[in-house]
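User: Here's a protein and a ligand (alpha-D-tagatopyranose). What would the complex look like?
Assistant: Let me lay out the input and then the predicted complex.
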Amino acid sequence: KSAALAAALLGAVASAPVHAQDGAKKDFKITLVPGLTTDAFYITMNRGAQAAAKALGITVDFQGAEEFDPVLQTPVLDAVIARGPDAILIAPTDATQMIEPLRRANEAGIPVVTVDTFIDDGKYQDGSGDGDFPVSSISSDNVLGGRMAARAMAEDMGGKGKVYISNVRPGISTTDQREEGFKAEMTGKFPDIEVLDTQYNENDASLAASQFQAVLARNPDIAGVFGANLFSAIGAGNGVAGANKSEDVTVIAFDAPPSIVDNIKSGVVDAAIAQHPAEIGYYGVMTAYAVLTGQSVPTTIGTGFTVIDADNVDDEAIAKFIYSE
Ligand code: T6T
């Protein structure tokens, strides 16, 4: 029966009318606007985007600011819109503040796909919210990632002790969701772990490191730090190592640049929740291409995680999840 159904479906595909846009322009130009240009996470995302561009025979360029800041990202975006690419992939640096700048792209007829971070509630094309217009959101499930970080931390700490989250700033969809997931998991499943106030570091690893010293001074029994993104995690690791506290303090990192991998090998970082940024870039470009060639697309695409720790850090299968620089 199922063979007959499959044959019927194949027949239907084979006899489907040729899409009206086949034979139309295909040498599309897409711009990828990262959260910032000098971040291994976005550099890796661009690697995936370039792989997709090559497969499709189209062009993707990478234009961004040097810091993760909506005030700096907006003029970059305006300049990109003025050049009129066929589509924009963007990691918006603030869920609310980037809605109006991105509306200008939409009004200029340029399809917008958000990658990594999102605007508004991240649920697009559902008829609700000011930022409903992007065609798709391609990202990690950051609430889940935060929960995974909490589980890794609780396991390493034996389920009890004081911890805090080192985070960038409120208003960023990804890092807000990681914090939400981390706290929900700790509150719901690990009642003997106390989560202290979050320390916001403005994406500055040095500030994140000095914040560890300050938290340690107030809480000599601090037992864990969750670095909720690459710079927070590098700072947390440096702060803990600088205070000679690696034996007593569990560090869980979000993101997996080479320096965090080195810190796992040396025992400063206990585990990293690696995102799959190359997948985000690859599927972001594929999604934009689908839209440009008249296909319908999923409004959200979720990419996965790989947990890296001392047990698997040297495995061959892990190497492809270490970010490029
Ligand atoms: O963690 C990533 C990204 O997912 C987040 O939105 C911002 O920070 C990073 O780029 C790492 O620095």
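Summary: The first strand starts at residue 29 and ends at 33.
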